Amino acid sequence: MESISKLNKSIEYLQSQIEELIPLLKSNPNDFAIKLQIENYKSEISNLQKSLHDANLKRNKEIIALRLKGNIARSGTFPLESVGGITNSFSNALYKTSQFLQYGKKGGKKIESILKNSLDIRLEGMASGSTIFYVSAKTSPDIFGKSIIQDSLENTFELFASNNETELMENIEKVGVKSSKYFSNFLDELVKDDLEIELTWESPDYETREWIGDKDKILMFTNTFKSIEISEPETISFQAELITLSLKNKIEIRDVDSGQIFSVKCASLFTEVLKELHIGELRDVTITKTTIINTVSQKEKIEYNLVEI
Questions:
Q1: Among 291, 117, 265, 92, which residue's Cα sits nearest to residue 189?
Q2: In the predicted model, is pLDDT for residue 12 greater than 70?
Q3: pTM of the model
């Protein structure tokens, strides 16, 4: 069986080939060869998605290692209260990021219950004689082979890769602005116990994702999170032309009346709808606009999320 990374790349390539053929088919609607090629690509994608699903089922779990460093972590033992605070706040951050990526702004007890059962994030164990804690989550691929926890972890490490306040403001959208407070809570637990941390995860492409959170980095993150104010989402509806489609759950649309172009994040629940859309197509859309302001630097970022299309 091909690697998960190779399967994902093959699917993305075939999807891009279909997107290139759609305008040709519109110009030549009776061209049987183009229709046949598109159907062949779709069939190949379906087979690859089944292989991806099987590969992620076989992978079974995602394991994240949290190596803690500090005075209370020197003897190879750790205060029980601190263990709970750190691992619970970290799992909450992963749950909320997964919720954002899967459902966007939607929430509620039913969605939370579905995610908790699907991901089943738990403390897997502790390395003997050390202060390395292992947190696990079910890979739980969907019918297309995609794993929401893998996407959440990729985005979490992209967030932590921020080197300064500006990069952090840009990367918050990867986990969702509402989820950022859960990452802030996680880092607050580390500050409270005067700890540094090394986070590691072996991704499906067998690369080790790593974040070394020393005191300076943790302080930069916590100070920035505390200075952030988030506006109440503003709902906007208009007729839009589809400008670009992205395989990373993002689209660009143009307001037909004003000409303004919006870069809009789309939750995974829109995957099937987006697969049927084509460049240049006109659709009635509803999006939310959320403004993120750093009250210290006065820097501002705007996030747009799809509600309906």
A1: 92
A2: yes
A3: 0.76
